[in-house]
Amino acid sequence: MTTTDPTGTNTRTAARVPGTVRAAWLVVEGRWIWYRRNWRSSVFSTVLQPVLFLVALGLGLGSQVRPGAATDGLPYLQYLAPALLASSALQTGSGESTYPILSAFKWQRTYHGITATPISATQVLAGQLLWIALRVGFSAAAFLVIAAPLGALPGPGVLLSLVFAVLTAMAFVAPMVAYSATIETEVQQFSVVMRFIVMPMTIFAGTFFPVAQLPVWVHPLVWLTPLWHGTELCRDAAIGALELLPALGHLAYLVALVAAGVHLGRRTFVRRLEI
Amino acid sequence: MSGNGDGGLVRARGLAKRFGDFAAVRGIDLDVRPGEAFGFLGPNGAGKSSTMRMVACVSPRTEGDLTVLGMDPLTQGPRIRARLGVVPQQDNLDTELTVRENLYVYGRYFGLSKSVVRAKATELMEFAQLADRADDQVEPLSGGMKRRLTIARSLINDPDLLLLDEPTTGLDPQARHLLWDRLFRLKQQGVTLIVTTHYMDEAEQLCDRLVVMDGGRIVAEGSPGELISRYSTREVLELRFTPGDQDPAAVEGLAERVEVLPDRLLLYTADGEATLAAAHARGVTPLSSLVRRSTLEDVFLHLTGRTLVD
Fold this sequence. Notes:
The complex is a heterodimer.
Chain A: H1 20-60, H2 76-96, H3 99-107, H4 110-114, H5 121-147, H6 158-182, H7 189-204, H8 219-224, H9 226-238, H10 244-273
Chain B: E1 10-19, E2 22-32, E3 37-41, H1 48-55, E4 63-68, H2 73-81, E5 84-87, H3 99-109, H4 114-127, H5 143-154, E6 161-165, H6 173-188, E7 192-197, H7 200-206, E8 209-214, E9 217-222, H8 224-231, E10 235-240, E11 257-261, E12 264-269, H9 272-281, E13 288-293, H10 296-304
């Protein structure tokens, strides 16, 4: 090695090429350094907002709902909480997979900075997705911690629901990151996605009332959403009513969406960062 | 020792880059030696940045051979990048992080330990005169400070080769001189620099050797002095007229080459004063006249033309 020490002092470095897992983790570390100073600004939308929904709808409106077949025999608060876990995880994830991605490509160009180091475009994508998954996980865990003393959690199965909620979020996040990465000029794409995909999904995919209440022709649309599959998994896991085959079906669908998103995202990240 | 057998840090033969139908780089040969400051000059769209991106191992070549630090970017990209410092044309700092955090996070991408990166970040903030802004967010910093931070960041891994793509574009004169001073110091420390620029004074100040690119090709190569003596004359006589009044025929034969501008005639000649006397003797009466040394700018405009590129 040539010895270069531009500052004239003695700290010698020994740069090396991190492996893929470590590289992705270093990208997470970079985001974490930002987050640990700035987490307060996002706490309202990611943790408090779902808690407000839980209180207003679960405790307030729910006091007028009699437990019955439609609520799986549960008090409405407990019927709602595991599904709200999935729904808010997906909303947190969707926020993280729009403007932050566009900005890292276009405005701040931080991805271009990272790929000038030994870290590759694919590793950047892996790190970004891992970071979103962790962030969704933190928020979901915080929601559970607040929901527990309200009596909103049906049982210890909610820990499994937490895992399913993160998977549900990522089934939307991975394709959404792939899409955001293709955007060169932001016009209205993100608000269209939020208004016409995320919003209807959070209202109609079974979070607040059974899908059976909807007209039959809407059902296939609902089944396409990752949130419906996630809601079924989270609710059944919370009350300990998971059945093997349906659960495997839901899982397979969510994992397939993640895989498709990763595949498409990888192509776009490489195309934009290594051309 | 880095580099391959013949000691070149960068070696290119017939290097080409195409984007679809557009040929950005059309087959160039390069040899950058250890310790030198090597410049790419050229108008916008000449292929400088595309070449830099190939050398930086973030853009695979379409054709030709390229080795950087003795390795092939196509197969050893990450290993090469571990030993490069890159200052891109557009800053890509994380503006929501502080100065120190930017250096820290970036250093970690090179697999450096936390303690090494912390110490290195502190040194580099001194070097870039940013120590008093260490814990400020980057967003509100001036353009010059951001640029200095970008350069400091590119040194976090003690690179063997530093790539600077238009390092001083958009900076005020004070900021440019401070940056040049830092780059001189790096050069003295033995860091090899590759610089692209379209500022001729920058190229004359910084570069030991340079190539002029135009339309994806290298059109000239040498030290600033060599290029001036090869492609221009020692002196230039500028005769200024009321626009439209100048008559190139009146000075024909007085100089090696005459260039006609809207308000001026440029006479490329070995002895400007003698040429001026000869012009006066012919009855040429300019509004004013100026004898100056040829500069790299004369070479550049001669080689790449005065037509606006974009």
